[in-house]
Amino acid sequence: MSHNVTRQLHPIIPGRIVRTEAMRIPGFPATYPLTIYVPPAYDSSRHHALPVAYMFDGQNLFGDEGSHSGGWHIHEALNRRAAQNKAVPLVIGMHHGGVSRMSEFSPWPISEFEGQGGAFMEWVVSTLMPKVNSEWRTLTGPENTMLGGSSLGGLMSLYGFTAHPQTFGKVLAMSPSVWVNDGELIRYFASRPLPEVRNVYIDSGGKELRTLTWCKSLVDHLTERGMVPDGDLQWRLDEAGGHNEPTWRRRLPLALRYLYG
């Protein structure tokens, strides 16, 4: 006699999503809330500390309401990882200021938009990170701290990584806007030593012609400097990929696997 029994070997216990009050940043016109993903392991023990992922465009990371093409649904990917007993970070989703995003999320000017990304990153390092570390149980140091994002968020993640090498050691850069200011990011990398602690994930879609061309140039520069493909550098070309949240959502589990095992 046979029985059709469905058994879930790894029940998914969802993490918490917390929305903070909006904060002001000196010199910036908007106010900036955070959306935070708290893994289930954090609440299971008051002694459990976690690595931290600081991610740009926090309004797009979770549900679909923050973007015309949907969200990353990062909480779903992380909940699945937690159910498989894989490493899961505390995620700090940093919202942009709407019409000022082009200035906030680029260290260099884009057309008429002033490049304020350097000042934004200074606020992240000097103000936001101490606040997070005081309010949450975190693991610190570059080996435990990631920057992540897509498009301009990917540009900022790569910039912040090389501008603050003692702070950030992991990068998740999906379809990063390396093209800004005619590839200024590559010249910025060339002017500085490579960070000693580094695991860098970069990808692009085959349908993103300008983004793809500039991403390949950056990857070539990094490998010429000594970074090792599938070692401290993972480059992924998604032939069918476009420049949109559904594509980034589809690639997200692969990026997390590289960065967190």
In a nutshell, what does this entry contain?
The protein is of the alpha/beta class. 36% of the residues lie in helices and 18% in strands. It has eight helices and ten strands.
Keyphrases for this structure?
261 residues, alpha/beta, Rossmann fold, two-stranded antiparallel sheet, 10 strands, 36% helix
Description:
- The chain has 261 residues and is an alpha/beta fold.
- It has one domain (16-260): Rossmann fold (3-Layer(aba) Sandwich), CATH 3.40.50.1820.
- Helices cover 36% and strands 18% of the residues.
- The chain has eight helices and ten strands.
- The protein has helices at residues 40-44, 74-83, 101-104, 117-135, 152-163, 180-190, 209-224, 245-260, and strands at residues 16-19, 23-24, 31-32, 34-38, 52-56, 90-94, 145-150, 170-174, 199-205, 233-238.
- Strands 1-4-6-5-7-8-9-10 form an eight-stranded mixed β-sheet, sandwiched between helices.
- Helix 5 links the parallel strand 7 and strand 8 (170-174).
- It is globular.
- The chain starts with 15 loop residues before the first strand and ends with a helix.
- Mean pLDDT is 93; it is low at 1-9.
SSE blueprint:
Layout: E1 16-19, E2 23-24, E3 31-32, E4 34-38, H1 40-44, E5 52-56, H2 74-83, E6 90-94, H3 101-104, H4 117-135, E7 145-150, H5 152-163, E8 170-174, H6 180-190, E9 199-205, H7 209-224, E10 233-238, H8 245-260
Helix pairs in contact: 6-7
